[in-house]
Design a protein that fits this description.
The complex is a heterodimer of chains A (about 500) and B (about 325). With about 500 residues, chain A is of the alpha+beta class. Chain A has 13 helices and 19 strands. The chains are: A alpha+beta (about 500), B mainly alpha (about 325).
Chain lengths: ~500, ~325
Amino acid sequence: MIGLTTVKGSTQNNRRMISRTAIAAMLLSALTAGAAAAADFDADATITIGSLYEPQNLDNTAGAGQGINEAFNNNVYEGLFRLADSGNVEPVLAKDFKVSEDGLTYTFTLQPGVKFHSGDALTSKDVKFSIERVTSAESKSSRKNSLKVIAGIETPDDATVVIKLSSRSISLPYNLSYVWIINDTATNLTATEDGTGPYELADWRRGSSLALTRFDDYWGQKPSNGDVVFQYFTEATALNNALLTGSVDIITSVQSPDSLVQFKDNVDFTVAEGKSTTKLLLAYNDRVAPFDNVKVRKALARAIDDAKLLKAVWGDYGSLIGSMVPPTDPWFIDLTKTDAYDVESAKALLKEAGYPDGFSFTIDTPNYDPHPIVAQFLQTELAKIGVKVTINVITANEWYSKVYKAHDFQATLQEHVNHRDIVFYGNPDFYWGYNNPKVVDLIKQAEASTTTEEQTNRLKDANTIIAEDAASNWLYLYPQIVVSAKSVTGYPLNGLNAQFFAGGIRKAD
Amino acid sequence: MPVIFSYLFRRLAILLVSIVVAAAILFVLLRLLPGDPANALVSVGADPEQIEAARRQVGSDLPLSEQFFRFIFSLARFDLGASFVSHTPVLPEIGKRLTVTVPLTLMAFVLAIAIALPLGIVAAVKSNRWYGSLISVVSQLGIAVPVFWIGILLVTVFAVNLRLFPSGGFPPRGWARPDAAFDALVLPVITIAIVMSASLIRYVRSATQDVLGSDYLRTARALGASFPEALIRHGIRNASVPVISILGMELASTLLGAVVVERVFSLPGLGSMLLLGIEQRDYPNVQGVLFISTLLVLFLGFFADLAQRLIDPRLRDRSGGVAR
């Protein structure tokens, strides 16, 4: 083909990016708890992973919840690409790909010799089938929107997939990392699977556990363990006890800071802190008064001592953020100085905005941790500038009806878990109703960029503007803490998008 | 014989009406909760079309009356449907959950009776001794203490410190490994048994006290029976009639009342299925669990009645009268 740029082995088409990836990978492997220490390991060990996030079903286009990503992404199902623990997009089932000069045609060559767990070989038809499942009318995938640019998928031969776009989409490889490649003859995907990953599903007991076993015909690197069992808990305390008593080997994401003490000072356990993408937000309804006023939003941002809040909730863990973009996103900039804690200037701003005596509003607060405590903290903080907060506690399900769908709220607390979700600020119809045409435009243009550098610059600009506008109040970035038994190593630390790759986990003999 | 048939017939009719009424109440209560079952299927980032599609899929876009008739029709065919969220058929899933909840409840029940019967009788007979009073006081305490607290206490002592039993969870392959499954249930069983026996002791004690003050016991003693002899021959049989109806109710309430214990110990039982179902507004699951447990409760009441009639001939003789 004429006029195509070939990109091999990386989605980033410049060298600097690749070397940065390499450095990140080196740093990461150095960080990976005791990676070098465990040379002797049991290649057939069963790794029991304790988690609070049980999938609701086994199909990520049928509303399975975040738990399915943890258990299945790159363990049972693989995509053309994957979001590595470093935050980079790496090719998996796509051996390489070419992009036409206008950026509208992507030609993917598939990895040869890939088999599904049922024994069928991977072909381009499976890829087409899998992508169309995500974009179909019934799909509940949160990534459906970002794949709307796909105008058509062609399969000229078994090893080639051609994707035609209606407009440039530089994030296509990234977005494809959310698409599981599934055998096109598979049925009943809410209870069974047919993927190409290193593990196949052995057993699923709802409300309790999900067992995976090594797939012997796996095309890539064999896992360094034999079986992986995800054991699910509804209570953080019960999960901690399970690790303490040795019935689980790892906790994927510790959610109760108080419990860390018992592991930190214990030689039998490793406490590892990685980078998460989960941000805690006080999101305003930017459509309604007084939150349609930038000055009010900025005043509130300045009135709240985020550092004190983070310390109260997480002790020495977690970090502060000045906007929606966490450090693992390529367009991160430190914006914590924007509207930093300053009660006096908050009062002044409020006066300028026409609220010299403050005002009152209601925070719709999800009933699970840490939201209710955080709401109380905000109540005390905002009282200092004369703003009176009423706390309305609601369930997650109600939150969805009231806040997300009906936009019937003044302000709400919510954790946003996804990677690269600054794009929500480019959608004026999103629940928080932030509408700055400049940002909408920048986010649209970023997607149409020809180079990642261009994309990064545009998103950095958008990021700076939303921070200046105090579009929402970004309270802090959750820590990502993995605790394991000392004998277990080689697990991912960052858990981006709640993934947990199990293939590299080793258990000492 | 005809007496027992008319009795059975009446019981069945009551059973049927109870079920229909329970189903209707259930339906209304569930719909009164704010929220939408479709919400459990979509995540942040979903667009309005996706949300509408989800509502169509679970039928929450239909008028309530239509939802209700669909529900009653499928119940009549004994079709409990499939979960909105997991898409698994409700009935087999309940069956799977019962393999945890039924052994849990039964073992706790047997253990509770084994504790409560002797202690309750001793508390009544020896109420003037220090240990008799002690039993009463301790059982009072047992009623006052919340069940989850006992669970957490047991876990701290016997799982975390002594490492005798697992702290929670259920083996992935369930009863395929009976020893592991049994181990997983030991602490939950003890937890429920402690709470259950605390209230049972009080019932046994008061039933025994009633018997102790009765004329027939005095008569039996006057006719020359020793105290233990009279108590065993006449006392226990009489005292067991009220206790059995209490036992029936206790057993029924524990089937679902185990929800707290199932949560503390992360057990995949009926209670945790119900709790999750309510959180997610997963109507088929909630309706299924409550429907099946209503059935169980009604049947247990029925069997408790029958048992009472077997024990107490006076109840049998009353022409077809429903016990109690």
